Amino acid sequence: MTATTLPLVTRARVHLVLSLGARALEAAAKFGLYALAARALGGHDAGRFFLALSVVHIVSTVARLGLERPLTRHVAAELAVGDGAAAGRAMLTGSAAIGAASAAAGALLFLAAPVVAHDLLRQPDMVAALRLAALIVPLQNLAYALAYALIGLERGAAGQLVMNALAPTLSLTALMLGAGDLARLLIAYAAAFGLCVLLGLGCILGERRRLTTPPGWTPPTEALPSLWHGARPLLVVEVSQASLLSLPVLILGALADPVSVSVFSLCSRLSMLVTTVVLSLGALSAPVFARHYRLADWSALRAAVRHNRRLTLAFCLPLIAVMAVGAAPVLALLDVEAALGVPVLLILLCGQLIFCLLPSRDVLLAMAGEGGILRRLSLWQLAFCTILCLAAIPPWGAVGAALASATIWIGGAVALAVTARRRLPQV
């Protein structure tokens, strides 16, 4: 290894450690938040809290307009060919569009809260919670836009902190300091994302020198498609994926009692700690995938895909094993009865196992500009998820929701792996 490459390798390792550290902080903070919220709010209000977050998740995803991954791709790919100014323009365009759409979506959710609570969720006491949750939408999405830009700049640790780790950490702190009712917890959650926005802006300003194009720069022969060209199909993908996470909770909320919603939500969010690690490693790999694809460096792209899979297995398999073996005591910390929660958690972990065996194929396809095929796969997943939830939840409740979710995770992972193999034979 040469003296030139050694610092690069060292920086990459430090970058990886910091990014995973941010995700570890997120996992610990979320576990603490869920455990303390379940005990402080009780089963009924905890169910309403998770239901409100599920609604926010769907509304926020729609309001991001599918621009997240195209934003990362454009920033990384333009920097790879030396056009920092184009990367800056993509960053500004994407962030402004997401901010404007999110402000409108938050206002709409605030106004529509009575309709959503009465007619969709069939829980009239959710109106106030939904109106407070509407405050989260614009702040969360601005933080996400800045985080995806930071990931494109290969500042993954900062991006993970802004997007994922800081908000639950601050919310947990607020809960420990006395925000022990539903209203104050939702306000604290929104305020936490406001601080994330400030941190993200500071990190972006620290990178502003990279967002210029040097004199005499020669543009590549093939230009990237516009940011909106990539966003159109990926909007459908992002909304579908958000629906896959939230749909079982929403259908369960309409057909079952709040305690069942709370049990499934806690088990689902616990199993999603595995997804958190997979997505973190995928986010770290996204700018690398985009750069190598832009430069048509296929051997480097293959190596990056293999490296992503090795890291995913190394981190996720022990995590799954620990949660599976210690399901009962872990759920006891969340104030969930073992008889109710253990079957749900084990079923969900089966889906997560397959997901981590075939990781980041959606990221690879998105960074290669294959949004159209991702859109078709996501719509099929959403259709099957709806059918499975409606079939399984009425007879089996939370267990049925877990069966539907795990089946969709497994089917989606396999379909993405097969598609990536066919669409990108070079990899």
TrEMBL record:
Q: Which UniProt keywords apply?
A: Cell membrane, Membrane, Transmembrane, Transmembrane helix
| Keyword hit for Electron transport | no
Give TM segment ranges. 96-117, 129-149, 161-180, 186-205, 242-264, 270-290, 311-332, 338-358, 379-396, 402-420
Q: Which InterPro entries match?
A: Poly_Biosynth_Transport
Q: What is the membrane topology noted in the UniProt record heading this document?
A: Multi-pass membrane protein
Task: Give a Gene Ontology cellular component term annotated to this protein.
Answer: plasma membrane
Subcellular location, record wording:
Cell membrane
Q: Which coarse location class applies to the principal site listed for this UniProt protein?
A: membrane
Kindly provide the name given to this protein in its UniProt entry. Answer: Lipopolysaccharide biosynthesis protein
Lineage of origin? Bacteria, Pseudomonadati, Pseudomonadota, Alphaproteobacteria, Caulobacterales
